């Protein structure tokens, strides 16, 4: 399926893999009886044998390229407004080690992202651990559906420039991120390696950069993203 994925990515399509929910989806005898395209039984058997399970890295809500562009431009405009505040400018200069507006404006970058993620912001609902193949019924019901994301504000930290998202009750039913970064019982926190900050649309859990941000913190509501 890789060639199809590459072609779709080149033309900016969002890929949705759909599996039938029928209990006989891998029953060759039933498939032979029910197929309406006169596909030979040996071909169906070979296809069923070669079927590969696709393991997602994470679940989430993905903005289309047009809405991603709108959100990134919106974020850039607010970063520019924040940088016009003297206290914010000075604080930003210290941790970014940049001292002119153009350099500061480019501090958050998407250059390290893959081509398929370059123009597609997302809000992560759940990261999938290695070997975890269990999907909740709520996740299954929401796969492939179009949703609205309600953005309530922008958050700037030394590592990320993100959007804070207010989820609906239904969206919250499939959301399982550790927003408060609490240490889980029996799980030691992994040390963070330094990385170049990236601009992303996610649900950041970090505190504000400093009190300077309060001078220009926006209040935002954007529907239909």
Keywords summarizing the entry:
single chain; 225 residues; alpha+beta; three-stranded mixed β-sheet; two-stranded antiparallel sheet
3D structure, described in words:
With 225 residues, this protein is of the alpha+beta class. It has nine helices and five strands, in the order αααβααααβαββαβ. It has helices spanning 2-10, 28-34, 41-50, 65-83, 86-96, 101-105, 115-118, 137-142, 169-172, and strands spanning 58-62, 122-127, 150-156, 160-166, 198-199. The strands form two sheets. A three-stranded mixed beta sheet has the order 3-4-5, covered by helices on one side. Strands 1-2 form a two-stranded antiparallel sheet. β4 (160-166), α9 and β5 (198-199) form a beta-alpha-beta unit. The radius of gyration is 22 Å and the shape is elongated. The protein starts with a helix and ends in a 26-residue tail after the last strand. The model is unreliable at 183-225 (pLDDT under 50).
